[in-house]
Amino acid sequence: MLRLTFTLLLLLTAPLMGQSGDFAGGLVGRVENHYYFSPTGIFRMPIPVLPELGGSISDTENVVTFQDSFSIHVSIGVFPQDATQRWEYSTRGPKDYLGYFFATYVMPDFQSAYPGGTVEDVGFSPTVMDGAIIAYTLLPGGSMFNNKRAIIGADNTPVVAKRGNLIFVHNGNVFVITTELAERVTERSTYHKTKAEEDKLLRDRLLEYAEKIEFARPAAAH
User: Fold this and answer.
1) Residues lower than pLDDT 70 in the chain
2) Which of the four CATH numbers 2.60.120.200, 3.40.1000.10, 3.40.50.300, 3.30.70.20 does domain 5-215 have?
3) What order of strands is seen across the sheet that includes strand 73-80?
4) What does the pLDDT read at residue 185?
5) What is the pLDDT of residue 24?
6) Going by C-beta distance under 8 Å and a sequence separation of 6 or more, which residues neighbour residue 190?
C-alpha cells in the first residue's frame, strides 16, 4: 500500500516552518539559480516566492511548500505509485483513479486536520496533464495565512479557507498540487468574488504552477 498519510498531512495541513532569506539551508531538496530541485530528482521548478516578500520554502522527501507573507501558499507533492496503485490506475482509468486517490488519501487528511472540511466541487479534465482532476475544498480554520486578524472572524469563528487541488499522474508518480485562495482570507470585508470567479482564479493558478514544473526524463529501459 502507498505510505501517504503522514506526508500528505504535511502537504495539506501544516503551517509553513521553512527557510527564508536566501533559501540556502535546511532543505531536503536543493536550490540553485532560483530553481527548486526535488530530493528524488523527479522534477525542478522556478521558485514562486521571493525572500524580499517573506518567501519561505519547506520540504520533505515527497513534498515541497512555498509561501510568502501576502498571497502565495502552494504545495507540490510527488508520490511514486507502488504495484497496487499502478494496478488501480490501469484498471480504473485516469478519471476514476484520480477521484479515488483524492477521496481515499487527500480529503481524509483535510478533514482530520480541519473538522467540517468539505468538497465544494470536483471535476475531471482529460486535456490537462493527459488527465487531471481539480477539486475545490472548504476548510474551516484552514488558512495558512495565519495571523489572528486573518483567521478569526468578527464572531470569533474560524474563517473558511478555500483551496484548489490539482491531481495527475506523470511517469508513474502521482502529483498533488494544492494552493490556497489567499484573498478570501486576507481581503475579508472587501472580498466579494463569486464561486465561479474563485474557481477560475484557483484553476488558473494551479495550471500555471503545473506548467512551470520541469519533469525529469524517465530512466531508459535496459
Assistant:
1) 1-25, 146-158, 219-222
2) 3.40.1000.10
3) 56-59, 63-67, 73-80, 173-180, 160-170, 132-140, 118-125
4) 85
5) 57
6) none
| Angle in degrees, CA 49, 140, 68, rounded to 5 | 10
| Residue linked to cell 535496459 | 222
Count Cβ neighbours within 10 Å for each residue of 3-38 and write b for 16 or more, e otherwise.
ebeebbbbbbbeebebbbeebeeebebebeeeebbb
- Grid look-up 486578524 returns 149
Residue-level pLDDT at 1: 46
Roughly what angle, to the nearest 10 degrees, separates helices 94-101 and 83-92?
130
Tell me the pTM: 0.88
Cα–Cα distance for residue pair 119/117, rounded to 1 Å: 7
Q: Please give the distance of CA 138 from its chain centroid, rounded to a whole number.
A: 14
CA dihedral 2, 209, 73, 5 (to 10 degrees): 0
Q: What whole-number distance in Å separates Cα of residue 157 and Cα of residue 151?
A: 8
Q: Which three cell numbers stand for residue 14?
A: 501544516
Q: What digits encode the pLDDT tens for the residues 198-217?
A: 999 999 999 999 999 999 98
